[in-house]
Design brief:
The structure is a homotrimer. The first copy, chain A, is α/β, with parallel strands linked by helices. Chain A has a domain of about 90 residues: 3-Layer(aba) Sandwich (Udp-n-acetylmuramoylalanyl-d-glutamate--2,6- Diaminopimelate Ligase, Chain: A, domain 1). In chain A, about 10% of the residues lie in helices and about 25% in strands. The longest helix of chain A has 15 residues. Chains in contact: A-B, A-C, B-C. The interface between A and B is large, with 64 and 59 residues. Chains A, B, C: Belongs to the transferase hexapeptide repeat family. LpxD subfamily.
């Protein structure tokens, strides 16, 4: 059983040859037809599943799927009657084939009569502007975009081709590349939290006159916030992805392909290299640098620079190995009686 | 003094007999009239207050309320002229009576002329569709619902009777039961954070083709996010309540009556039993199981299964008693001088 | 190079005399004209920069700015040809002058034809109501306000003069002073998380019949949430500023000029004095009191009252000095071998 057709009608059926091509494989029986992807447990004889790792091996042995992407090591566990499609990256193959059956919805070109589009805005060919969307003066929207219901593209913004603003997303003071996605309620280009407090406690706003620059393929999750630069720009590098409810302060810069998981927050002017991973609910203070491929653990509180390819965890954050050792020590101490011996359940 | 009548005009006056019935009590002077509920400090002679616990005992002794819900133990502290309504659950009695004076606003049936409703959407009897709301193709909305201003019900969604979407809430790819509430800006049915990263660092989206299933009486707070399943469903069981700014990842499942407090986050495929409580700003990693009636403390970071009826706190989370012991030990150590003796303020 | 004129066209040019007046300085060559503010690195000969602290001293020595706000101590490092504007508060002077070149956008008076404004709402002179905004029955909006696209002012609300609701902000059950700002997607006046759980696990809503009171100059960040009182009011004192994604529970009260940074959360009925600072991702339990000028560190978890002018950090939060000592001790222990000696990289 594949996806609910009310929401996700599958394309197809699709021939195995096309499926194999998407997955980078070659097959014998290329004309065999498949109707959808599904999980090992739910797939039927015309559907395709996958196994990554070993956790789901029992499900593999009992699957009724017509075919399954597996590693060479797991191929022997594929049951009779199920076609083993052997690949080093089964989940990646699955993702690419799933996208054949369930491509992103194409834009339905045109401007909804309830949308408010500035006369001098430029809307690319084949772009869809949804109900109650608002497009500001001088905005430029590329070809093949979808501007969802009640989404906003502010005055002067540039949005590259193939981009999507989902329902109620807003973009202001922003220059965005191609294939950018803003999920529901994402806020891009807001005023940063910039003010000077006088000796009498009055907060005097520092005008925030920078922009947000989003590289090609940047995706921003639901209800996340990306503040514009105070002066100069906030920059998210190409392919960077933010999950939901993430906070990005003014003048933050990320490199390529960074991943920032739900509810993490990055304070002003922090700089991330390429392929940095910030796990959920982590926080970074401002004006620090995180090296390429560094990884910050969930709920970590990062107060200093992190070298490239380094994992840090904890609040305040330390290198992962030392932190785990410290926590083990603390656990051991907590189990120590007053006479110095240990006892009881630790 | 009760609520500000500009926002909350009280029904009534209401006879004591009806009040007692709502609270599950019997009274003598059933025809006496009351005009509203209020706090012990603010209630006047036609208003009803309550005392739960002992913290507000001084306020009880000085209250000018006409009547007060109290436990048997506190009845002797009710001042002369104030009617003691004795019950084992004073605050619950108060809640039920407050709802007599301040029932949830009823829908004003009809579709606002600025709303955009798909021709094949089915709208139940007595349902209100507010200004600029958007109802997608094939959506089914039950009777007696309120769809607030600028709220969105996506194509194919099902929303049970008596449900409420407040201002700018959005629901997509979702099947919801009766009496469901989405607060302002809540996001349900967003694409989950699902992708595979290739060896060159490219993030390849895994199509997210599952749904969100909301049980009867589920309530979701302002600006909270509930991602749809990657394949299969994200499920919130009947009576589950989410506070504001909560994140629920794809394929999370909760049982009945769970409570998830503000800014908590639950990663993909975690499963909660019935009546689990997740306190504010706590985080759960994916693919773990939390047993019935377990409780997770504020800011806890849960990385492993939690058995039923167990309290855990801390990040990483431990059983509460051990964590508190560890923290006490650490505090003691911090107060230890280099020569091994302790001194100074701990 | 100043700000991108697509988004932030500078006023001006502006004479040095006016600039000096805004900064509280006196100058000789008052007729000299300047065109914008910019950073030390980017400013050109008709632009003004500033130096605060010593970190950017190298940039000062190489700046091409026409003038620079500096402290007396740094004046000797201002390069030849650049005018040194000496002040004790260079960044504050910069902020005030930046606001000359980049004043907040003025309202464009009038009601957009797609806005839905209740017939009995009162709209002040010179106020702008944007596309698809919704103004409820009996609302009162002061003079010179901007109600952005798709923003909502609920029935009965009062909003003081010079206030701004940015795109998709919503305000309900709220009485707000002058110069209040709600950023994109901010939610004010939502129902608080108030319910009683019965012995069978049913959650019974306690009607939330209080309001939100916002003092003059309160600013609330993007996608932040401020719940209304359960009974009585939630109050944010004059000049209090909230960053993005902040959660304020029902009946919280703050004094004047508090600062609450991104993703922090304050539970119900907590009370903050004047000029309290709550750093990012910190959490406060309900019903506690935080004294004037106390400061709560990032990610702290505050479970008890905090005296005035006290800094606390950590979760659970302790006074800052003791917490740092405890962490140092833990780090030292983690580096201790089993035989009691220390060794290896700490």
């Amino acid at each position: 059983m594949g996806a609910d057709p009310r929401f996700f009608p599958a394309q197809g059926p699709i021939a195995l040859s096309a499926i194999a091509m998407a997955a980078g494989l070659s097959v014998d029986d290329g004309e065999r037809l498949f109707t959808d992807v599904a999980s090992l447990a739910e797939a039927g004889p015309t559907e395709i599943a996958f196994l990554e790792g070993r956790r789901m091996l029992p499900a593999l042995r009992e699957t009724r799927a017509g075919a399954v992407f597996v590693s060479a090591a797991a191929a022997k566990d594929v049951p009779a009657g199920c076609l083993a499609l052997v690949t080093e990256t089964p989940q990646l193959a699955y993702a690419r084939v799933a996208a054949l059956f369930h491509p992103s919805p194409a834009p339905v070109p045109g401007i909804h009569p309830t949308a408010v589009v500035a006369p001098d805005a430029r809307i690319g060919e084949g772009t869809e502007i949804g109900p109650h969307a608002v497009i500001g003066a001088g905005a430029e929207i590329g070809a093949g975009c979808i501007i969802g219901p009640q989404a906003i593209v502010g005055a002067g913004c540039v949005l590259g081709p193939g981009s999507v603003l989902r329902a109620q997303a807003s973009m202001e003071h922003c220059i965005a590349g191609a294939r950018v996605v803003l999920a529901q309620g994402a806020r891009v280009g807001n005023e940063g939290f910039g003010f000077i407090t006088t000796s009498t406690g009055e907060h005097v706003t520092v005008p925030q006159v920078g922009r947000v620059i989003l590289g090609d393929g940047v995706e921003i999750g639901a209800n996340s916030c990306v503040d514009r630069g105070a002066g100069g720009d906030t920059v998210l590098g190409p392919g960077t992805r933010l999950d939901n409810l993430v906070q990005i302060g003014h003048n933050v810069k990320t490199g390529r392909g960074c991943v920032i998981v739900a509810q993490a927050g990055i304070a002003g002017s922090a700089e991330l290299g390429d392929f940095v991973v910030i796990a959920a609910q982590a926080g970074l203070v401002g004006h620090i640098t995180i090296g390429d491929k560094a990884r910050v653990g969930a709920q970590a509180g990062v107060m200093n620079d992190v070298p490239a390819a380094t994992d840090v965890v904890g609040s305040p954050a330390w290198p992962a190995r030392e932190t785990l050792r410290a926590f083990a020590k603390l656990r051991q101490l907590a189990a120590t009686k007053r006479d110095g011996t240990s006892g009881g359940t630790p």
